[in-house]
């Protein structure tokens, strides 16, 4: 425990006969931190963290005072060091993180130090949830068959994680088939108030975390402050490094009114996402308040919090209230913990009641009357592009020319394609995937029960899913199966094709599995714009399925409804879904459940015993997991023949003292990108084919295309991942005219894969730069988007703006992010990719400095462009000068 307590905040709290030590905001206010009781709740969590970790080195009195000063301007350029209580990982991002830790142990041994210096210093939970694919669907055997395939494909990865579970302290693994990491966090891991035994005291403090998945924010719904970071930043946090950040702005989002009959939490979150994207909240905290909270369940709040990455915020925080306590009890948390949460949050001024005054100390605010929310989808490419349900068909028709670009003028819209061996045809707009998937909605019993009731009513009227629709149900936890089964709704879902396919992220991460071959063939032969409707949070280009160009986010009951309808070309609000067994048309209103029906089933069938039973032995796993042999050494025995796990090159020839950073001279342009390039564009997660650089590598290593798995599953092998960087099938490099996919111009001016061009430039010792537009790096907290960029030899990315996590990840991998100033863009400068670029004085660069970029055109003319260095803090500068954050941490630990 730190011995510094400048504001005399250390206090005690007695709950249920037990005494806890805590750092009181009220006491700190009495002793000099004037006004801090008026801080937004999320900022109180930050303040408490600083009070608790004050040590006159990483946290000073001035840092704490800066939070009180924030109340004056509601913004700050003061940098603080923040230490989360724990780290959460999923396997797509967790495997490469554990690979890095294993590589750091090797490097530590080579430097003559003890490999055990590399060990998590804060609790780490890794939930294996991203590896299951929807290969089999629509049958009672789908779940078992998909599990078998999952273990068959991922045996090397799972052996490696089992080694990590035994080799590292403070590191737990939740085995496959348990649920999505965010729902496991919400239902089991998170406590709202955390405790730790320290120096003979039980210290109570807010539960906080960072996660290697951007949707870590879901747990903000139960007043746990957490957000997504890249794997490299999470590794530093777990190894004891504070997260350095500027004191954030906090945007208050006031909710009033009450949701109308028939409106779902999904409709609400899509509306919130649209509003906050328009406002612009990248890098900011968002905190929800107002009387409308009285009418939202905690699961509704978690749904809204989950999509913070989609609206661009660092977090989407909700206060503790009576519903938080009810949720903790319902999900089986210990009664003593629930009592502590209530007492602690009230003592810290963090407990909201119906009578509470609205907070007033936000940076800015916006407001939504819940009664104005209407049924909605979002798509066809971005989560923030909300479309009212009644407008989906005309909006799709308007988007069709863009979606079909590149297929040729010889194909007219809505050309029918006969499906071989079937008695139906498909066209542009045919829904070929309907998936209840992803953490966004599978945390929320109300929308899952609603989906089950839609299925029940449709089944009773004689409707079924259209035969060309690939249907799937991938719940966020096993508890979902328990309450759907108890209510008899799983039988109804099964009857129309929504059988259980697995417990994991599936379609939302790109693990939708292949479409039936005949349907895939028709789509590709006719170059159709096929559609998916999924209850996920991500619908970026090329993410869901390579055969599907139009992707829409929707609530689970609407996913079921679109499976029944089978097309976007018909207005689902006015036209029949189909003909019932009585020969009469069936409309959406005929099968839509009432709010009362939903609430009654939730009340009857969701209970604490289900949660206690499912989580009683959560780390044990099934017979597949228990049967994996565990290697016991402190360093990993790398298998040179593995195509899943390889020792990465980051620490080759590492020295105790870092080498000086150097100027970037005569760099060539690898790509010119437009706005909203996502981390999916940069480092795709889904499947890939044999003609890609990654596919060619695997075939050279005797891996058949059917066993390629996905980029996400291959993240432990840098050879696959660097070949997959910028390999998204929908990415457009504007150096090439009308070409879709990961291509560029090589050193000789010919078109080639970006990976091949990068390797050709590396052989000539030529550095590379990338130019981009606004919101570069939106989407998932994907460290491989930065790692791959680094391994391709890119030294700087120059963009109009950066998304928060990716900017940090670039710095963490030694890549300089530079931001155009004064409205400049590569388009306004007239760049075409043939230029050379010089970035000088890199050795003396300082955070947020103005950096001159010298651009020399092919004709010899020169442009000097001022940019803003987006290395934002002094700590980030240290990381950059060390070659990356992991190099900095490793050197620090070895020297300790």
UniProtKB/TrEMBL annotation:
The keyword Cell inner membrane does not apply. It is an enzyme of class 4 (lyase). Residues 74-566 form the Aconitase/3-isopropylmalate dehydratase large subunit alpha/beta/alpha domain. Keywords: 4Fe-4S, Iron, Iron-sulfur, Lyase, Metal-binding, RNA-binding, Tricarboxylic acid cycle. GO terms for molecular function: 2-methylisocitrate dehydratase activity; 4 iron, 4 sulfur cluster binding; aconitate hydratase activity; metal ion binding; RNA binding. Its cofactor is [4Fe-4S] cluster. One of its GO terms (biological process) is tricarboxylic acid cycle. InterPro entries: AcnA_IRP_Swivel, Acnase/IPM_dHydase_lsu_aba_1/3, Acoase/IPM_deHydtase_lsu_aba, Aconitase/3IPM_dehydase_swvl, Aconitase/IRP2, Aconitase_4Fe-4S_BS, Aconitase_4Fe-4S_dom, AconitaseA/IPMdHydase_ssu_swvl. SUPFAM superfamilies: Aconitase iron-sulfur domain (SSF53732), LeuD/IlvD-like (SSF52016). The keyword 4Fe-4S applies. Pathway: Carbohydrate metabolism; tricarboxylic acid cycle; isocitrate from oxaloacetate: step 2/2; Organic acid metabolism; propanoate degradation. Its EC number is 4.2.1.3. It catalyses: (2S,3R)-3-hydroxybutane-1,2,3-tricarboxylate = 2-methyl-cis-aconitate + H2O; citrate = D-threo-isocitrate. Residues 696-821 form the Aconitase A/isopropylmalate dehydratase small subunit swivel domain. Monomer. Catalyzes the isomerization of citrate to isocitrate via cis-aconitate. Belongs to the aconitase/IPM isomerase family. This is Aconitate hydratase. It comes from Devosia aurantiaca. The lineage of its organism: Bacteria, Pseudomonadati, Pseudomonadota, Alphaproteobacteria, Hyphomicrobiales.
């Amino acid at each position: 425990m730190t011995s510094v307590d400048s504001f005399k905040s250390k206090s005690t709290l007695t709950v249920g006969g037990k005494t806890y030590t805590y750092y009181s905001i009220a006491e700190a206010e009495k002793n000099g931190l004037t006004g801090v009781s008026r801080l937004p709740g999320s900022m109180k969590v930050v303040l408490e963290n600083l009070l608790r970790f004050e040590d006159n080195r990483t946290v000073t009195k001035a840092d704490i005072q800066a939070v009180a000063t924030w109340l004056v301007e509601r913004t700050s350029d003061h940098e603080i060091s923040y230490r989360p209580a724990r780290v959460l990982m999923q396997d797509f991002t967790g495997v490469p993180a554990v690979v890095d830790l294993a590589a750091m142990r090797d490097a530590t041994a080579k430097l003559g130090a003890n490999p055990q210096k590399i060990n998590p210093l804060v609790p780490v939970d890794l939930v294996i949830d991203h590896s299951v694919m929807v290969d089999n669907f629509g049958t009672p055997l789908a779940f078992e068959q998909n599990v078998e395939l999952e273990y068959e494909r991922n045996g090397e990865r799972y052996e490696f994680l089992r080694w990590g579970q035994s080799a590292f302290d403070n590191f737990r693994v939740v085995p496959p088939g348990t649920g999505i990491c965010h729902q496991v966090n919400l239902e089991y891991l998170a406590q709202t108030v955390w405790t730790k035994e320290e120096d003979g005291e039980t210290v109570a403090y807010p539960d906080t975390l960072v996660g290697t998945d951007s949707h870590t924010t879901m747990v903000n719904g139960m007043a746990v402050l957490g957000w997504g970071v890249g794997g490299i930043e999470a590794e530093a946090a777990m190894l004891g490094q504070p997260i350095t950040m500027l004191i954030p702005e906090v945007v208050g989002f006031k909710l009033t009114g009450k949701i109308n009959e028939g409106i779902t939490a999904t409709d609400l979150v899509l509306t919130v996402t649209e509003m906050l994207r328009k406002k612009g909240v990248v890098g900011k905290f968002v905190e929800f308040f107002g009387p409308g909270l009285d009418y939202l369940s905690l699961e509704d709040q978690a749904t809204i919090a989950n999509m913070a990455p989609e609206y661009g915020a660092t977090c989407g925080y909700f206060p503790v209230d009576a519903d938080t306590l009810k949720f903790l009890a319902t999900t089986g948390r210990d009664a003593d913990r629930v009592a502590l949460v209530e007492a602690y949050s009230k003592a810290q001024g963090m407990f909201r009641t119906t009578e509470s005054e609205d907070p007033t100390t936000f940076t800015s605010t916006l407001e939504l009357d819940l009664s104005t929310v209407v049924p909605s989808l979002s798509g066809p490419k971005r989560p923030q592009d909300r479309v009212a349900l009644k407008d989906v068909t005309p909006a799709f028709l308007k988007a069709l020319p863009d979606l079909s670009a590149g297929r040729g003028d010889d194909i007219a819209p809505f050309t029918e394609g006969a499906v071989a061996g079937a008695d139906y045809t498909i066209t542009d707009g045919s829904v070929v995937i309907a998936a209840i998937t992803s953490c966004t909605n599978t945390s929320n019993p109300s929308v899952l029960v609603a989906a089950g009731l839609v299925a029940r009513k449709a089944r009773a009227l004689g409707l079924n899913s259209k035969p060309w629709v690939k249907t799937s149900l991938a719940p966020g936890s096993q508890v979902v199966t328990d309450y759907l089964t108890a209510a008899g709704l799983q039988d109804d879902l099964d009857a129309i094709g929504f059988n259980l396919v697995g417990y994991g992220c599936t379609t939302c991460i790109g693990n939708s599995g292949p479409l039936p071959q005949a349907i895939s063939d028709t789509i590709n032969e006719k170059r159709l714009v096929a559609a998916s409707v999924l209850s996920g949070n991500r619908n970026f280009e090329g993410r869901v399925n390579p055969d599907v160009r139009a992707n829409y986010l929707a609530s689970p009951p609407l996913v079921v409804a679109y499976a029944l309808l089978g097309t976007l070309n018909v207005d689902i609000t006015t036209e029949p879904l189909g003909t019932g067994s009585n020969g009469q048309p069936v409309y959406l209103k005929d099968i839509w459940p009432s709010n009362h029906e939903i609430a009654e089933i939730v009340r009857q069938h969701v209970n604490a015993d289900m949660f206690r039973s499912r989580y009683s032995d959560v780390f044990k796993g099934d017979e597949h997991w228990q049967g994996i042999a565990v290697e016991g050494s402190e360093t990993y025995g790398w298998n040179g023949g593995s195509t899943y796990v390889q020792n990465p090159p980051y620490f080759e020839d590492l020295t105790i003292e870092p080498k000086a950073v150097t100027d970037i001279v005569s760099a060539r342009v690898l790509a010119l990108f437009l706005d909203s390039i996502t981390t999916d564009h940069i480092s795709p997660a889904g499947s890939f084919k044999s003609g890609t650089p990654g596919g060619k590598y695997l075939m050279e290593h005797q891996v058949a295309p059917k066993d390629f798995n996905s980029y996400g599953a291959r993240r432990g092998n840098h050879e696959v991942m660097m070949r997959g960087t910028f390999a998204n099938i929908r990415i457009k490099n504007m150096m090439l005219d009308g070409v879709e996919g990961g291509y560029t111009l090589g050193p000789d001016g010919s078109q080639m894969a970006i990976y091949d061009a990068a390797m050709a430039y590396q052989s000539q010792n030529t550095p590379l730069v990338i130019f981009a537009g606004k919101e570069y790096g939106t989407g998932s907290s994907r460290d491989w988007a930065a790692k791959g960029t680094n391994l391709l030899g890119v030294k700087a990315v120059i963009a109009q703006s950066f998304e928060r996590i990716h900017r940090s990840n670039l710095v963490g991998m030694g890549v300089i992010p530079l931001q155009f100033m004064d409205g400049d863009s590569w388009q306004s400068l007239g760049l075409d990719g043939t230029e050379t670029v010089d970035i000088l004085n890199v050795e003396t660069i300082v955070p947020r400095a103005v950096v001159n970029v010298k651009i020399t055109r092919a004709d010899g003319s020169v442009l000097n462009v001022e940019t803003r260095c987006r290395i934002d803090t002094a700590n980030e500068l240290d990381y950059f000068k060390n070659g990356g954050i992991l190099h900095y941490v490793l050197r620090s630990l070895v020297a300790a």
